[in-house]
Amino acid sequence: MKTENLDYTAGSNTFESYVAYDEAKSGKRPCVIICHAWAGQGESDQEVAGNLAKLGYVGFCADVYGKGLRGDPTGDNTHLMKPLLDDRAELKSRLLASVEAAKKHPMVDPSKIAAIGYCFGGLCVLDLARCGADVKGVVSFHGLFFPPNLGPQKEIKAKVLILHGWDDPMATPDQVVEVARELSEAKADWQIHGYGGTMHAFTAPQANQPDKGILYNETAAKRSWKAMENFLEEVLA
User: Fold this and answer.
1) Which CATH code is given to the segment(s) 2-235?
2) Do 67 and 15 form a contact (C-beta atoms < 8 A)?
């Protein structure tokens, strides 16, 4: 397994990606971009990149905060995330820069890019689909759904898979219906998998704040990963 850190830029800002791929395999291959949760790119994202590399992809961990800017996985990272939630145009610019950086990697087939994201990263990948980024599909794990409101929504070309804990207080059933309506109006090819009895951050083993609606769920984590595998096999074939 080959891993490396690579810098890329958006405007005047520098970002640091983490890339993983199987050295034993020759030639270019599809790439899956991983968009991080509110704490910033960390070990969990890098582990996902490695698991994706084992499946035959290049795993590319994006960075939308900036090189060296990382939060606390168990703390309050509002100060890092909120500026980008308040400025979705800037978030869009940084996300598109990550796609372009991934496409330029020598092991990546630039015509076969997908993106997955967790929590805040789930919102990020939906924004990639919304803005017409050159990606074949996106997967949102326990993501946030509210739209960027950057003007009229054009037709969404990327296929969309949303993997959602039904008891997630950060994305209520009404918001699930609303994002389905949004995607339908944009003529997207979409799927939503709702996991009953499942809260926010259900893929994160360290998540253990049920009083706040945040809790790991091993069954939902396994089911959602398998759903993602099947989806990637379809969109990156």
Assistant:
1) 3.40.50.1820
2) yes
